[in-house]
UniProtKB/TrEMBL annotation:
PANTHER family, A to Z: PROLINE SYNTHETASE CO-TRANSCRIBED BACTERIAL HOMOLOG PROTEIN, PYRIDOXAL PHOSPHATE HOMEOSTASIS PROTEIN
Family: Belongs to the pyridoxal phosphate-binding protein YggS/PROSC family.
Domain of life where this protein originates: Bacteria
GO-annotated molecular function: pyridoxal phosphate binding
Protein name per its UniProtKB record: Pyridoxal phosphate homeostasis protein
Summary of the function given for this chain in its UniProt record: Pyridoxal 5'-phosphate (PLP)-binding protein, which is involved in PLP homeostasis.
Organism annotation: Nocardioides zeae
Cofactor section: pyridoxal 5'-phosphate
A Pfam family this chain is assigned to: Ala_racemase_N
InterPro entries noted in UniProt: Ala_racemase_N, PLP-binding_barrel, PyrdxlP_homeostasis
């Protein structure tokens, strides 16, 4: 085993342990909480090592980097999660390789994502609709706008996604805002998720929690966490 693979194996084991401990603490089954390893800024060779170590779900946040890595790793049995800010003129291209789009935060993205999925279906490269998570903003109202749909517009956006035959509303995603206890923010997310599930019973996925706050997210009901630096190490460049 290469030194890098051994390092990844140890870090991955530690993160898996944190997730199962958090699930146990919340009275949840260990396999109730999935792990998406966020490989942004790290090379395809790391993705390969992670796949060998049993990782099935990987996350990327920049289109060009994600597209290149997905192509390099096309022989691996991986689900690619797109978790970054989406430009509407790139959304169709993202849908050409992404298996899950977690950062759908405005209605303008619905058309291009659906077209991208339809083209992929035509090429015989996928089956069924594209799994989408609507990204919710957990910022205080009036905070400088970061990514995400404001909670008061969530119902309308979810409806748009659910109505499109090429998209499947799988659930919600969020990032805890800076400068607030993540637990409080994730509690608001859990309320949003409950409201969405009342209208869309199939929207059961809740993507929340990163290296620094996965325990709080699991306590609030996250069904998968997105962990980067705790598995791969500090990112080579600042984002
Ligand atoms: C980078 C990123 C993560 C992972 O962050 P870490 O703190 O490195 O675990 C999770 N979610 C999103 C949306 C990200 O951009």
């Amino acid at each position: 085993m290469s030194a890098r693979r051994a390092e990844l194996a140890a870090a991955l084991a530690a993160v898996r342990r944190r997730v199962t401990d958090a699930a146990a603490a919340a009275g949840r089954a260990p396999d109730d909480v999935g792990l998406v390893v966020v490989t942004k800024f790290f090379p395809a060779s790391d993705v390969r090592d992670l796949a060998d170590l049993g990782v099935r779900d990987v996350g990327e946040n920049r289109h060009q980097e994600a597209e290149a890595k997905a192509a390099e790793c096309a022989d691996l049995d991986l689900r690619w999660h797109f978790i970054g800010g989406l430009q509407s003129n790139k959304a169709a291209a993202v849908a050409a390789y992404a298996d899950v789009v977690e950062s759908l935060d405005r209605a303008k993205l619905v058309g291009p994502l659906a077209r991208g999925r339809a083209a992929r279906l035509d090429r015989g490269e996928a089956e069924g609709p594209l799994d989408c998570l609507v990204q919710v903003s957990l910022d205080a109202p009036g905070a400088e706008h970061r990514a995400g749909c404001p909670p008061d517009r969530l119902a309308e956006l979810c409806e748009r996604v659910a109505d499109d035959e090429h998209l499947r509303l799988a659930g919600l995603m969020a990032v805890a805002p800076l400068g607030e206890e993540p637990a409080a923010a994730f509690d608001r997310l859990a309320s949003c998720a409950a409201r969405v599930r009342a209208d869309h019973p199939g929207a059961t996925t809740l993507s929340a929690g990163m290296s620094g706050d996965l325990e709080e997210a699991v306590a609030a009901g996250a069904t998968h966490v997105r962990v980067g630096s705790a598995v791969l190490g500090a990112r080579p460049r600042v984002q």
